Amino acid sequence: MARTPLIAGNWKMNLNHLEAIALVQKIAFSLPEKYYAKVEVAVLPPFTAIRAVQNVIEGDKLQIKHGAQDVAPHDSGAYTGDISGPMLAKLGCQYVVVGHSERREYHEESDELINKKVKQAIKHGITPILCVGEKLDVREAAGHVAHCNDQLVADLKGLKAEQVAKVVIAYEPVWAIGTGKVATPADAQEVCGALRKQLEEKYGAEVAGSVRVLYGGSVKSGNISDLIAQPDVDGALVGGASLDGEEFTKLSAMAAGGPFV
Ligand SMILES: O=C[C@H](O)COP(=O)(O)O
């Protein structure tokens, strides 16, 4: 089954809403129209910039999509500081990152919590981009495939096959995030392929064939082509390089088969 590549720019805790407007305009107007048939491009601003980005995208009828970096596990209530699925849906968010290693580490998010967040996103019609990935010690002990599979199983617990079909998976080896140490295309394929196999075993070939599995970790315009050429790599979750309009546009064009002109 053909899967349209997804390039999602995770801006993390960067850019105020004015800077966000400038960046989304730069990306949208730099990427030639023809590429949008071949690649889906999304930006994931911090919560404070989502409304501004939504306005630009809807006002200028841009083809770029937008989303968020986290979602609360509850619909509403006394959860100070949290942002709910219904709030994000109202802001036109199509995607939300769930289970990023930075949330697992700095906010001590458990698989149980991440599982609730995945369910919340789906409940409110937002596609979760579920991140899994191993730390360096796990990889050095050759436990990376089992570790990522275990995270996947725990984070999707209780979901029906038709719900899993709505999820995007992102394999992000922690040692490659923000370090400049990109996984080799073979490394990325090994885990992305294993994750898809796991999906097939649990949810069937149709679901496994339709779910997009991204790679994330030091992706740039110079390495995206080799990564996305792998049979089970369907795009990228991009951090640092997504903050540079020209670089992110070039990267998106390369994912669409390039060249960037
Ligand atoms: O969400 C994105 C990933 O954490 C990758 O970040 P990076 O491209 O800066 O390595």
Automatic annotation (TrEMBL):
Flavoprotein is among the record's keywords: no
Subcellular location as annotated: Cytoplasm
Query: Any idea of its EC number?
Result: 5.3.1.1
Q: Principal place where this protein is found? A: cytoplasm
To which pathway does this protein belong?
Carbohydrate biosynthesis; gluconeogenesis; Carbohydrate degradation; glycolysis; D-glyceraldehyde 3-phosphate from glycerone phosphate: step 1/1
Q: Which residues form the active site?
A: 100 (electrophile), 172 (proton acceptor)
Give the record's keywords alphabetically. Cytoplasm, Gluconeogenesis, Glycolysis, Isomerase
Q: Which GO terms describe its biological process?
A: gluconeogenesis; glyceraldehyde-3-phosphate biosynthetic process; glycerol catabolic process; glycolytic process
Q: Which residues bind substrate?
A: 10-12, 178, 218, 239-240
Give the family this protein belongs to, as stated in its UniProt record: Belongs to the triosephosphate isomerase family.
Q: How does it assemble?
A: Homodimer.
Its function, per the record, reads:
Involved in the gluconeogenesis. Catalyzes stereospecifically the conversion of dihydroxyacetone phosphate (DHAP) to D-glyceraldehyde-3-phosphate (G3P).
Protein's name according to its UniProt entry: Triosephosphate isomerase
